[in-house]
Amino acid sequence: MAENNTTKSNGQISVQDAQVAVVMVPLPAQGHLNQLLHLSRLITSYNIPVYYVGATTHIRQVKLRVHGFDPVTTKNLHFHEFPTPPFENPPPNPNASHKFPNHMIPLLYATIHFREPVCSLVNQLLGANHRRVIVIYDSLMTWVLEDIPAIPNAECYRFNGFSAFYMFSSYWKTKGKPFQPETEIFEDIISSENCATPELWELWNKQGALEGKICSGELYNTSRVIEGPYRVSLVHNKETNGLNLWAIGPFNPLLSEQNKDSNKQHQTLYWLDKQETNSVIYVSFGSTTTLSNKEIEELAIGLEKSMQKFIWVLRDADKGDVFAGEERRAQLPEGYEERIKGRGIIERDWAPQLEILAHPSTAWPMHSDQPRNSQLVTKVLKIGLNLRHGARQDELVTSEIVENAVRTLMASPEGGEMRKRASELSVAVKQSVMDGEVEDVPAIPNAECYCFNSISAFHTSSCIWESRGKPLQAGTEIFEGISSNKNCATPELWELWRKQEALMRKVSSGELYNSSRVTEGLYLDLVAKENDGLNQWALGPFNPLLSEQNKNSNKHHQTLYWLDKQVTKSVIYVSFGTTTSLSNEDIEELAVGLEKSMQKFIWVLRDADKGDVFAGEERRAQLPDGYEERLKGRGIIVRDWAPQLEILAHPSTGGFMSHCGWNSCMESISMGVPIAAWPMHSDQPRNSQLVTKFLKIGLIVRHWACRDELVTSEIVENAVRTLMASPKGDEMRKRASELSNVVKQSVVDGGVNREEMDSFITHITR
């Protein structure tokens, strides 16, 4: 056993004399930046200094998110800006044939220039009385760390931004399904076809050869409570060569207590405060998805016709430079915002997703791991429903689909049951991250890298299952109907992935997930089993559980003031993240659907982030003539950032229309908010399956198989009404609430998630 260099005070493990330093190397996309920022917050709470690196524009973006962090921990958080050469910075294309944010590929290639400054920083830290430097890197940043294994006392750990479920299902499927035990769940897993583009696969393959030389373990933003079985499967996966895997999520703060004293709120949270408990659906598709104009129109109409309250984050995917250029302003149906006034909120900028999901008044999957994340949420955890199944990813999600999904999630017994499961899972996750004693792990000498997987364990395990020819039998029945990965990403991303894939097995000493064993325990175990003992940690939820965190905050976003005036659970929050840009048609349909649903909402309406989020103006999506006037009092349109976590945490938020990016899924689960799932790309289709089919805390707005079909206003309306104003929706809310309670219990003293985080910290500081 290694010498124990940690002490414990007030239930908190602390590293003595900062003998260990951590360098954080995130992928420059908002969801990934945020997850590793939250992980940095968690690690600094152990009195370990963290050096967060990135391009100047992304460090600037991240610093805007630090406000509200505990000053005691932020004193150990250091930011380092590295230069990149000029790169193309095209705006998101809402009408592209593929939802994957291919406009980000030039930015991803530019990050290879971080290689020399990261190596220099590691050497500098080792020369500053640190006995070991730990580098935690995103899985698509492997090539930045090629020189690290040659540095004594430096270790690299890969963060997997996907779920353990996604990772294992992908391994299982791509390897010809070779394993027999516990793979029945993967038999209907969504295919990975079209989940990413050839460009991404090429990028991945260029890095893959390095992985085995670099990685000492893997980290997941998940929890054993959620993905335990898939994490174990990854540990036993031959592809991971026995690396340690840690599920140390949720990374996000558990906000239920955190923000009670907050006086400064986003507008969506004020609005949620005025809504009834579990009455609002939150609609957001992350920061890498851009909806077409037709999709927006159908979604709007569906939300309107559902007659459910909602918050809709309506914005395009982030650009490579998120500060450069104008953003498209999606057009909503004429008079839409006026008609839904008081019932829905359209948010066209940032929204406080975590707070919205945590709100007591409050899952469309979109790309990469998202289709399989949706399967984890819907099929496994059974805390959501699918708007669009993976096999129909090219079909338009009509307003009727949206309407039915929202109504099912928000206003039906099925939705109530999903909310109940989501709440229970949230409690388990929160319990899992609270303090608990753990034993030292065996020492690993010299350099180690740990990979952060920003996807779900469900998506990971389903990919393993898929890549290996669906080998496992027991426990993988869930994967048999899994969404295809086809069109989940672009060729450019696959190329980027392939360029790094060979490196991963050589680099990683373990994997980190922003997940919880409460929700993904099965999938984490499956991933662990397939990774031959590679350490994996489900450290999530990374987001704070806001109930306590924000008690003393004096800042309130406009949405939060509005939520304060809404009935409990009466508002649906609509947001599709920072990588998705809806087309004008998508925006119009969504607007009309929200209006016709007659439900209150907050809609974050903005394009995907650019590579430089501070460069240039963004498109301002157009809404139907008179829309915002008509929905005044019933809905809020947010065209910039919205405090998503606070909105989700608000008691007036009762539903979340989301792209099912894993970060959003974890925030929604931890806050006990059911999801209307509309996957766009990447892991989102499978995330939507997890939420709707397994966790049963949501409904599908548009199935991945129908991804090319317009989501009409009728679909939006039906989805919103189902989620927000039906017995089915009530049941989803009930399940979501129960799941949230389980998640929250998992982070208390002795909780499984707290033990997981302590295990990882003990391991890297041995």
From TrEMBL:
Pfam families: Glyco_transf_N, UDPGT. GO terms for biological process: cytokinin metabolic process; glycoside biosynthetic process. Residues 19-253, 427-544 form the Glycosyltransferase N-terminal domain. It comes from the Eukaryota. The keyword Transferase applies. One of its GO terms (molecular function) is zeatin O-beta-D-xylosyltransferase activity. InterPro entries: Glyco_transf_N, UDP_glucos_trans, UDP_glycos_trans_CS. Keywords: Glycosyltransferase, Transferase. Belongs to the UDP-glycosyltransferase family. This is Glycosyltransferase N-terminal domain-containing protein. The lineage of its organism: Eukaryota, Viridiplantae, Streptophyta, Embryophyta, Tracheophyta.
